[in-house]
Design goal:
globular; 91 residues; four-stranded antiparallel sheet; mainly beta
């Protein structure tokens, strides 16, 4: 999230057999992002932030969890907001 930005978390059940989790955060430089690489283990998009801690495995783990439970996860960007949308089958 950008400094002074915001994070939004939403959960919905658009279909009886699906649950959707959306996590959004402000990310002004999103149009430069390499979305196809976000889920690679150890990938860090912004080298300037590499000293902020973390190892770049969080989204890779999230993708593994989604796949394990027959779901999906995708990243998108619009109007300075980065979105991660996870769809899972409901129990």
């Amino acid at each position: 999230c950008d400094d002074g930005g915001r994070v939004v978390v939403e959960v919905a059940q658009p279909k009886r057999d699906r649950v959707t989790l959306v996590v959004q955060n402000t990310f002004a430089d999103g149009k430069k992002a390499q979305f196809n690489r976000f889920f690679e283990r150890f990938y860090r998009d912004d080298e300037a932030r590499s000293n902020e801690g973390g190892y770049g495995i969080g989204l890779s783990v999230a993708e593994s969890i989604c796949k394990r439970y027959r779901g999906s996860i995708k990243a998108s960007w619009k109007a300075d907001m980065m979105s991660f949308t996870c769809q899972l089958r409901s129990a």
